[in-house]
Amino acid sequence: xxxxxxxxxxxxxxxxxxxxxxxxxxxxxxxxxxxxxxxxxxxxxxxxxxxxxxxxxxxxxxxxxxxxxxxxxxxxxxxxxxxxxxxxxxxxxxxxxxxxxxxxxxxxxxxxxxxxxxxxxxxxxxxxxxxxxxxxxxxxxxxxxxxxxxxxxxxxxxxxxxxxxxxxxxxxxxxxxxxxxxxxxxxxxxxxxxxxxxxxxxxxxxxxxxxxxxxxxxxxxxxxxxxxxxxxxxxxxxxxxxxxxxxxxxxxxxxxxxxxxxxxxxxxxxxxxxxxxxxxxxxxxxxxxxxxxxxxxxxxxxxxxxxxxxxxxxxxxxxxxxxxxxxxxxxxxxxxxxxxxxxxxxxxxxxxxxxxxxxxxxxxxxxxxx
Length: 370
Prior knowledge:
Blueprint: H1 5-8, E1 54-56, H2 62-72, E2 75-79, H3 85-99, H4 103-106, E3 118-120, E4 135-139, H5 142-152, H6 159-186, H7 191-199, H8 205-210, E5 215-222, E6 234-237, E7 243-248, E8 255-259, E9 263-266, E10 274-278, H9 280-285, E11 295-297, E12 305-312, E13 319-320, E14 338-339, H10 340-350, H11 354-358, H12 362-369
Parallel strand pairs: 1-2
Antiparallel strand pairs: 2-10, 3-4, 4-5, 5-12, 6-11, 7-10, 7-12, 8-9, 8-11, 13-14
C-alpha cells in the first residue's frame, strides 16, 4: 500500500454526507443541523480550564511531564516548540481565506466519496443523523492540493496558500518526530522497539528512516452559529493516528476533551501553543498506557473559529500491535495484531467502538472506556 489514502477507497461515503451547506446563506439553525439530544451532554466553559497540562518543551523534566500527561489525560498543550506565532498567524490567515471564499468556489475542490483530500464535511458524518456545523479541507498530497486549490483561486492566487501549508507540514513533522521521541523515552521504549513492532524484526533502522510517516493536515472551519446550544461542530470521537498536533485560533474556544472525573473539559487557546492529543494507533502500540483522547468541538454565536490539525501516523505498511516490552503479567495484552489498513476498515464500520473491536477481549476494553 503506497498511501493510506488507498485504504479509504474501500469505504466510500455518500455524496450528501460530504457537501456542506452554504453557511453564509443560513440565518436560522436548520432542522438538518439541530441536535435535539444535546441538552444533557452540553457544557459551557468550566472552571476546569487548566486541567489539561501546559508543558514547555524545554523544561528539564520534559520526559516525565509528557509521560504523565499522556497516561493521565491523553492530551497536553506544548509551548516553546520553535514555530513562531507570526507563522501560525499566517497559517490561520490562509485557512480563513480559503473558508471565506464563495461556496460555489469551494465546491470545485470537493472531496470525492472514496478519497481523503479536498473540501467537505468530515468522514465521521455518516454516523450521525444530524449534520455537523463544520466544513473542512484536508491536505494529504501536495500536488493534489495545488490542483484543487487552483480551482478555488484562479489566476495563480492559490500559490500563497499552498506554500504556507507545505511549510507548516514540514515544521509540524519535525515537531512530531521530537514529540514521539519524548513519548517513547517516557515509557523507556527505543525507536528500535517501535520499528520492530511496526515493520518487523527483519527491518533495519534505515528502513524506519526510508519509510516516511503518513501525515495529513486538516483545516477546520466552524462558522458563527445562530443557535450554538443545539448544534455540534465535531461530535465526540478519537483520531485514527499516533497523535494529533492541533493549532486552535485564539479568537474563540471550542475544543473539549472528555476527562475521567471531570466530563467534558474546555481546552482554552494558549497563544502560540499546540494541543497534542493521543490517537488510537498509539493507544494500541502502548497497550493502553497512553489512552486515545475522546474530544469534540462546540460552536459559538459570534465568532468564526478556525483550527488546524496535523495527523501524525506511522508508515503506511505498518503492523499495529502492542509493543512487546509494554506487555507483562501486570499489563496483559489488550489489543490484537492488525495492519493499519485493517484498523481503518474497523473505524469505517464501528467508529467510536473501534478500539473495542480491536481488543483481545472487547468486553474488558468496553468496560475500561465507560
